[in-house]
Amino acid sequence: MIAKSIDAKSKYTSNHCMRVPILTIMIANAINRSSKGTPGLTPFTKDQFDELVIAAWLHDCGKLIVPEHVMDKSTKLETVCDRLEVINERFEVIRRDIKIHYLEQLQRVKGNDHAKLEKKYVQDIADLDQAKEFIREVNRGGEFLPDDDKQRIRQIASKYSYHDGNKMKPLLTEDEVISLSVSRGTLNDEEREIIQSHVKHTKTMLESLTYPANLQNVPEIAGSHHERMDGKGYPSGKTRSDLTLQARVLMIADIFEALTCADRPYKKAKKLKEVLAIMEDMKNNGHIDPDIYDLFIREKIYLNYARQYLDPGQIDTGE
């Protein structure tokens, strides 16, 4: 019920809480089957297995507290509404002012100067249209924003201003510049902190419940799914030695589902080869557990999951 509520809250993560437990169980079953030949991966007891499954179902319950306009932020300028519409209105005010200035100058000059003024006017409007289109493009978000694009955002902000009553204001506010300059995805630093806080909320919410003796570790497992092996994760900066095997399994299931999902607002669904390359880097860089990931690959868990839950067009591994 809670998982369905979380998924229903956000159209962009509508299957996440339902699919993470499925993948978690697939990985846990593989550990139980092959752990004899895999040092460091001991079979789960029934109680440990049950704890892991329940934690997987509830791992994102803290998102119930995250504001919808942050969790569902589909563009960089979106808050309660998409501020791109407001900026487009400013562009139209600037376009009007450019035209008024051109017509006023046209009345003051004669002869060949008309052609020069018209040429400049046409170029000014073209530059404005290019700036408007550029802002529209970078507002979408993506995997990487070059430094040159960030510099151009600031140049546009300083180049153009518009009349607002009796005042001249810059086309872009500092907050809008910062939001448009986000390198990955659509969230600025403040919003990212709000999203990340869902893990703390998850643990706090789950710790408020009373558990039978065999399920005492559910809050800890669920509240650790954004930690890393090297201690650079959140919310607690735990390392591999601090994390249970259950938590390390849940991390990989959560990451794989997030990378392969087709419903995130700022990215297309990734194909399997790209996802596996990203996760291989994560393994090598101390992000995810190497033993579990090697098992994930060796047992072809990724492929079994993909055949059941991904679009066939995402499966490009030739298997």
TrEMBL record:
Pfam families, A to Z: HD_5 (PF13487)
Molecular function terms, GO-annotated: phosphoric diester hydrolase activity
Source superkingdom: Bacteria
UniProt-listed InterPro entries: HD/PDEase_dom (IPR003607), HD_GYP_dom (IPR037522)
PROSITE patterns according to UniProt: HD_GYP (PS51832)
Domain annotation HD-GYP: ranges: 109-311
Name of protein: Cyclic di-GMP phosphodiesterase response regulator RpfG
Organism of origin: Aquicella siphonis
